[in-house]
């Protein structure tokens, strides 16, 4: 079933890039890992969406610039149809505007095309394990920009640019507890699970359980999107009060 992998079933990955050599190189770096399986390759965003419908991958490695449908458009479409599928953007440049757009589109983070095999595998496993591939400083800057943009969108005179913004998010059916609000606030400041556990004096396993519960309640696939959704819902302001 899409989005669910047991301890014996490898995570299902999809590679989307319009360059054959890049797809081949990425596939080669992922080969031989018993916990990972490449189930498909797409050469544009539209094909990536179609393959998601066919294979239901756990994670998509998504190039940003592709023909027919670019990576940002494909990410929006995939997340709308398959919210539990995680997406890791693959880029050549750490452009803050691209990264902000990617996070707003639903991506968990990014990995550079020049990354080593170790760095690629680390980023993939972090996302699949519910952790963030973004370093704390970058995560904080991106999420601050999300918060600033969200604040501007809620002003009475503000009009959505180009009609691309979604309507305000509905509150989760099951509200977050006080402890979960505390934890999602720490997520939004770039803290790792281990740092959260140390800060709140709870076990690492309890922290992971809380994070998984938060993601389930907010109906997101990763901690980056949990923080984004919490900002959009105004939950972090509520936690501060």
Give a quick precis of the structure:
The protein is of the alpha/beta class and 241 residues long. It is built from eleven helices and five strands.
Describe the structure.
This protein is α/β, with parallel strands linked by helices and 241 residues long. It contains 11 helices and 5 strands, in the order βαβαβαβαβααααααα. It starts with 10 loop residues before the first strand and ends with a helix. The relative contact order is 0.11. The N terminus is likely disordered.
Estimated structural class: alpha/beta
Tally of individual helices: 11
Strand content: 5-15%
Number of structurally distinct domains: 2
As a percent range, the share of helical residues equals: 40-55%
Strand line-up in the sheet with most strands = 2-1-3-4-5
Give, in order, the helices and strands: EHEHEHEHEHHHHHHH
Q: For this structure, what is the CATH class of the largest domain?
A: Alpha Beta
Radius of gyration, whole Å:
17 Å
CATH superfamily of the largest domain: Response regulator
- The CATH topology of the largest domain turns out to be Rossmann fold
Give the strand tally.
5
Biggest sheet details: 5 strands, parallel
N-to-C CA distance = 40 Å
Based on Cα principal axes, name the global outline. globular
- Identify low-pLDDT runs: 1-6, 156-168
Mean pLDDT, all residues: 84
């Amino acid at each position: 079933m899409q989005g669910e992998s047991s301890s014996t079933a490898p995570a299902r990955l999809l590679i989307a890039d319009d360059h054959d050599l890049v797809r081949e190189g990425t596939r080669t770096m992922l080969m031989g890992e018993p916990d990972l399986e490449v189930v498909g390759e797409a050469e544009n965003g539209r094909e990536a969406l179609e393959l998601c419908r066919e294979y239901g991958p756990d994670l998509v490695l998504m190039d940003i610039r592709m023909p027919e449908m670019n990576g940002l458009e494909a990410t929006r479409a995939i997340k709308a149809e398959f919210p539990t599928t995680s997406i890791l953007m693959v880029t050549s440049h750490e452009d803050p505007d691209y990264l902000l757009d990617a996070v707003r589109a639903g991506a968990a983070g990014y990995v550079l095309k020049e990354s080593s095999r170790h760095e690629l595998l680390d980023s993939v496993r972090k996302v699949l394990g519910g952790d963030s591939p973004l370093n704390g400083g970058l995560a904080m800057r991106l999420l601050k920009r999300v918060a600033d943009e969200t604040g501007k969108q809620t002003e009475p005179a503000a009009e959505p640019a180009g009609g691309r913004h979604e309507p305000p998010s509905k509150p989760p059916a099951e509200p977050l507890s006080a402890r979960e609000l505390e934890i999602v606030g720490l997520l939004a400041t770039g803290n790792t699970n281990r740092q959260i556990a140390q800060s709140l004096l709870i076990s690492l396993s309890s922290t992971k359980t809380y994070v998984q519960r938060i993601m389930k309640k907010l109906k997101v696939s990763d901690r980056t999107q949990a923080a984004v959704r919490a900002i959009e819902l105004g939950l972090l302001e509520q936690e501060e009060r």
